[in-house]
User: What shape does this take?
Amino acid sequence: MESLVKQENEPTDVSVKDHMLDQELLDAQAGADMAGMQSMYQWEIYNQLLAAGHDPDQAKDWVLEHVEPDPPVESPRFQVTDMKSADWVLKKLAELDASEAEIAEMVQANHDSIDQRAERILEPIRRSRTFFYTVFAPQIEEWAKKQLAGKKTKSEKLIHGVVGFQKKPDSLVIDDGSDAAMDALETMLPEAIKTTRSILKTPIKKLLEGSERTELHVPASMLTGDDSGPSDDESRLIAHIEPGENEFYIKPACRPNKNRKE
Assistant: This one.
């Protein structure tokens, strides 16, 4: 009798154990999936950081250190739900744009001031350099010619520099650049002729829009050079109008700089 009762109870014990084991596996899997987060709120913030491109380990450490397991009830996250909330976001963007523009103006003003001061400082230096080159360079050249006459060396070393002579590379001079000359040269030396061609989109788009067409076709014979006379329906697509897509944009209103003097 005891064995029979035991046998009847065994499936129940096994099913309970299986259920407990399955629950442990599910809990373990959930913990692994949540990367050690203590709540779904932390898990949500963690995934937002990953979506923004942050390193997983750094995102995990930051969430565990700065984000409470339960979201703060007293300060729900802001969401855009109506015109007023949407306009609030645009207001904030406009304020940020104004702040960025103000800083850019300050930087540019400093750059302009520094550039102007640098020009004032450099101007007399450049004038003096021009004077020395104009007046004394010919004299040094004449002295160097005499100093180096009969010597194999072509330069003279001084304490504060070197003077000398060096041969420039030979240069080619085009004496005749006419179309006839280029035609002849293209036959003799094709690699000496540079031909650059490209398709301009504006005339093609204007043609298609003016004729209310969306595609431009040309006879295949014009592309193959075959004058045997293909049928009229043999053509090649050269260009087509790609319909523009509706693109969402946010354009904050320009906010005047409070510190700017009118």
User: Anything to note?
Assistant: The CA atoms of residues 19 and 236 lie 69 Å apart. Helices lie at 2-33, 40-51, 56-66, 83-148, 179-188, 201-210, 220-224.
